[in-house]
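User: My instructor asked us to take a sequence, write out its structure as C-alpha cells, and then describe one feature of it. I'm not sure where to start. Here is the sequence I was given:
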Amino acid sequence: MANSNLDTEVSQEEMNKQLDELEGSDRTLFGWMAIIVLIVAVSFSLFHLYTAGIDMLPRMQQNAVHLAFALTLIFLIFPYKKNLGQKRIPWYDMVLAILGASIGIYILVISEELVGKVGNPNTMDTIMSFIALLLVLEATRRVVGKPLVILATVFMLYAWLGDMYLPEFLGSKAILPDVLNHFGFTWKEIAEFMYLSNEGIFGTPITVSAQYVFIFILFGAFLEVTGAGKMFIDLAMSLVGSFKGGPAKAAVVSSGMMGSISGSSVANAVTTGTFTIPLMKKTGFRPKVAGGIEVAASSSGQLLPPVMGAAAFIMADFTGIPYLDIVKSAAIPALLSYTAILFMVHLEASKYNLLGIPRKDLVSPLKIFAGRGYLLLPIIAIIVLLVMRLTPILASFMAIVGAITIALFSYRMQKNFGAGFLVSLLFTGAAYAAHLLFGLNQYVTFVSIGSLLFALIWYAMGKKVKGEKQVKFGFIEFLTALELGAKNALSVVAACASAGILTGVVTMTGLGPILSGLILDLANNQIFLVLLFTMVACIIMGLGLPTTATYIVLAAVMAPALIQLDIPVLAAHLFVFYYGILADDTPPINLPAYATSGIAKSDPVKTGVQGFKFDMGALLLPYAFVLNPILILQDETATWLQIMLSVATAFIGIIAWSTFIQSYLFTKFGWIERILAVAAAVVLLNHSLMTDLIGVGLFAAIIVYQWWKRNREDDSRAGTAEGNV
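Assistant: Let's start with the prediction itself. The C-alpha cells for your sequence are:
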C-alpha cells in the first residue's frame, strides 16, 4: 500500500486476538485443547458448507446442530469473566460444553416425536428445557454481554407474572397494569415452550442464523483470509487517499465494502480500523475523531446489501417479502447513508484543513487491481447470482467456492505457473467427477472453470503491469478461514438464540399488539409523533444489544405500531432497523467504540460520541423513506424521473442536515445558517413539489451566504496581512 502505511501492518493472528479480547475472551489455549477447539470450529463450518451446498437438514434438526456447535465452542473459548488470562479450559467449562452439545443431540434423538411434546412433555424433556434455557442465557452473557440477558429475563418475568396479584397485606392488586395483563405461565411452561417448540430458542432468529447468516459470515471469513479485506483498504486508499481527509474517506469506503458482507460491526471495525486509524491520525485527525469515523463507517456497513448485518434474511422471514426485493429496496437508503458519512468526513477535513496522503506515496489503483483485483470476483459473483434469483444460501455457497478456487489457483500459478495450472485442472476435474459420482452441485464445476479462466487472466495481467504479489492461500489458510468463520458467528448465534426467547414471549403473551396500541394511544395516532416515539424507543431498547438481536426485538414490538398507521410493511421494518443500528453507536454502551479507541489510543466514551455524531448525518433518512416510499422502491406507479427526483431531494436534505451537525460548509456556521439548514432538512422530508422547492431554495440560500461570508473573511485576512507588512 502506501509507503506511509508500512508500519501499520498487522497480522491476522493479532487482529483475531484483539477481536477475541473485545468480545470477552482472553483465554489462550495450547496443545490438545487448542486442537479440540480447532476441530470443533472447522467441523461447525464444514457442516454449514455441506448443508448449504448439498443437503439442508429439516428445520428443527438444522437449528439443533447449529446451536449445539455454537454453545460448545462458546464454553470452550469464552471464560465466565474477562481478564482471567486462562491458558487451559477449566473442568466446569468442559462440562458446560458437553451439556451444550447434548441439548442439540437430544433434539435430534426426539425430532420425530417433537410435535406431540409441546403440551405433553415428560420429565427428561422438562430437565433438558431448563438446561437449554440456562445455557443459552449464560452463553449470551459471555459472548454478547449482560443487556440482552437482562432483557430476556425481564420478558420471561413478564410471561410468568401474567395475572398474578400482590399479597393481601399489600392490597391484592394485580402486579401488572391492566393493559399489560395476560393469562400468565409457569416457569415449567415457559422453559418447555422455549426449547421444545419452534417459536422460542429454535424460532425464526436461530433458523435464519442456521440457514443464511452463518454461511455469509463464513464467506466474509474467506474474504478476510484471502486478503480481500486488506485489498479493499488499499484500493480505497489508492483511489481517494490523496483527497482532502483522504484516509478517513478510504476508511468509510473500505468499511462499507467489508461491512456489506460482515455480520459484526466490531469485527469490521477491528479489521479495517487497524490499518485506517493510524493513517487518519498521521494526516491530522484527532484520535477520538479517527476512532469515531471508523465506528460510524463500520456500524453503518450493516445497512449495505447483501447481508445487512444479517437483518435482510430475518426481515424476509418476518415480513414474507422476498430477500432480493428487500435488498433492492435497502440499496438507495444505504448509499444515501454512506454519502452522509462521507460528506461529514469532508466537512471535518475542510474545517481543520486536513490534507490527504501525497499521491507519490500511494500505490496506483491499476497495480493493486492487477495484483489482487481477482479478490473482488467472489463479491461480484454473489451479486450476480442473487440477481439471477439463486437462493441466498446457494449463492453464498458458490461465492465461497469461488473465493477458495480463485485464491488457490492465482497463488499457485504465480508461484509456479505449470504446477499451478495443473492443480487448477485437477481441482476442476475433481469437482466434475464429484458431480457425476456423488451429485455435487454442478455449479461448483462451473465456478471452478470460471476461476481457472480468471486466474489465467490475472496471471497475464500481473506479468504485464507488474502488479503486487497475490496473497498466499493453501490448506492452512483454508482451515484458518473455517475456524475464523465459526468464531465470528458465535456472537450472532448467541444473540439469535436469546432473541428467540424474546419473540417466544411475544408469541405467548401477545405483547406486540399491546405495545403497539400503547404507542398509538400515546401519540394520538399522529404519524410524526409515532415515528418520533418509535425512534426514541428503538435507540433506548437497542443500547448494548448486537444489531441482529436489536432488529428482532424491534420488529416484534415496535414495527407493528407503524404498520397499523398504514405505513408499508418494509418501510416500517427498515425504519426500526436503521435506528437499531444507530443504537449500536450510542454511547456510553458502544462496543465498536471500545474496539476503535484501543487502536486510536483514545477515550472510548469520547470516541463513541464522535461515532454517534458521524452517524447523525443520516438521522432523518428513515423519516424520508417512510413519508416517501419511492426511496425504497415501494411505489409501483413511480417513474424513473420521480425516483431520481426523490433521491436528489433526499440527498440535498442529508447534505443540509450534515452541515447543521458539523456547523460548517465553506466556513463556520452562524445561527442564521444553522436555522436555515435545519429548516431545509425538515422541509425536504415531506415529499411534495412545494416543500421540495422551499427546501432546495433554503439550502441554495445557505450556499450563497456561506460563499459570500467566506470571501469576506478571506478579504479581511488579506487586508490584515497587508497591514502587518
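For the description part of your assignment, you could build on this observation: Confidence is low (pLDDT under 50) at residues 1-9. Try explaining in your own words what that tells you about the chain.
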